[in-house]
TrEMBL record, chain A:
Keywords on record: Membrane, Transmembrane, Transmembrane helix
Pfam families tied to this protein: DrsE_2 (PF13686)
Keyword Plastid: no
Coiled-coil stretches: none
Protein name, UniProt field: NAD(FAD)-dependent dehydrogenase
Record PANTHER family: CONSERVED WITHIN P. AEROPHILUM, PEROXIREDOXIN FAMILY PROTEIN
UniProtKB/TrEMBL annotation, chain B:
Keyword list, A-Z: Transferase
Domain UPF0033: 6-30
Top-level taxonomy: Bacteria, Bacillati, Bacillota, Clostridia, Eubacteriales
Keyword Methyltransferase: no
Single GO molecular function: transferase activity
Descriptive protein name: Sulfurtransferase TusA family protein
Pfam families the UniProt entry points to: TusA
Superkingdom in the source lineage: Bacteria
Family to which the UniProt record says this protein belongs: Belongs to the sulfur carrier protein TusA family.
Amino acid sequence: MGEKATIIVHSGDMDKLYSALIVANGALAMGMEASLYFTFWGLLRLKKGGLEKGPLSKMHLLGLGKRMIKGRMDKTNVASLERLVADFKELGGKIIACEMTMEIMGIAPKDLDEGIIDAYGAVGTYIQEARDSSITLFI
Amino acid sequence: MAEIKVDVRGETCPVPLVEMRKALRKAALGDVLEIIGTHPASKKEIPMAADALSVKVLGVEQAGDEWVIRLQK
């Protein structure tokens, strides 16, 4: 232990959420700590029932593209975002929700999936997490 | 000293790695983990993770599409 990965999840797009969670789970699996800092469009995915609701970042095609990609993902047995979050939490990953985004978007803690959120914070929280991280990403 | 089996056949990235880590966390020191899977990259990456976690790799075998990796905590 001692090594850490800290990822800012700025995008609410489904494919980008996959990237963030796969990298974070990989870090945990390989013995690192991991923190996900959800801000802006990413924070919307922490709303109750919002996890799987993101569009595709490209070729969303009013939902048709997402349906096709989801179909391919099911066929190749890719884990759901729900499962990736559950695994992330089980392996000790930390989820931080951005308070400023909550204010801007009028989101209260009760609107969010509070059970998976470890902390509510601002930039200082991110910096504290990131300053001793050997991996930091902005997704 | 228990022997723990983890079956991740048909699972893809990052599930084999994650399931290995989950099982390792629950295992006691000295326990042997036998992971059986089909995801090609995980065959390389599980031993990489084991090294990073200072867990001993007892063996890696391939039979057809399936591989078996044995680790000792």
